[in-house]
Amino acid sequence: MRRGTFRDETVDYAAVGGTQARDLMQYPPERSIPAEESWRIGSGQARFETAGEALLSWSAQRGGDLRLSDVRPAAGPMYSGVSFDEEGNAVSPSRLEADQRFDTDGTPYVGPGTTIRLHGRVDGMNADAELRVIFAIEEARRVGFALGTVGSSVVSGEESFLIEWYPNDEVWFTVRAFDAPVALAYRVFPALVRRRRKALFQRYLRAISPLYTS
Fold this sequence. Notes:
By secondary structure, the protein is α+β, with helices and mostly antiparallel strands. The chain contains four helices and twelve strands, in the order E-E-H-H-E-E-E-E-E-E-E-E-E-E-H-H. The strands form three sheets. Strands 1, 2, 3, 6, 9, 10, 11 and 12 form an eight-stranded antiparallel beta sheet that branches. A two-stranded antiparallel ribbon has the order 4-5. A hairpin with a 5-residue loop joins strand 4 and strand 5. It is globular. It starts with a strand and ends in a 6-residue tail after the last helix.
């Protein structure tokens, strides 16, 4: 796992990295509404690599009818952190340095500390936001990242995206999030936050998985 050299106060919520908590659904950050979904999207190394490449080139967002702009990689050297296994033991990072990559239109790939702007609508409501990549993971069987809100969003919080290739050869896509209502409509009607999140999850799945048909 690699984290960008950004200050926590650049995001607008306190529980940075909270989507990684095992008990997120039971104990979400204060005033936040948690959500989590996992889908089997295929099997085999080729499927894992294809899905991982799509994820890191912002396909979940773009395929989810959202438009990216102002993609700004973190300035300065990147800190190559470590991740941890289920027993809390440190695991070496998959790379010692973050090599910047670009897609065919020149947009930088996901990288720790990258800031982006999203534009669009979800269920008829504004979905514009400024977001920051909290961490990015590139390992032999796991690829993913988390986005945290910086500002200009109807909710405040974080969402993480993870592609995993399991020992039984299955490939799974997991999205986790917590959202604290910011816009007045969401504060008055919390059910709108859940509806918005459900719609986003389905968009992300359609973007990443060619097997999605329902």
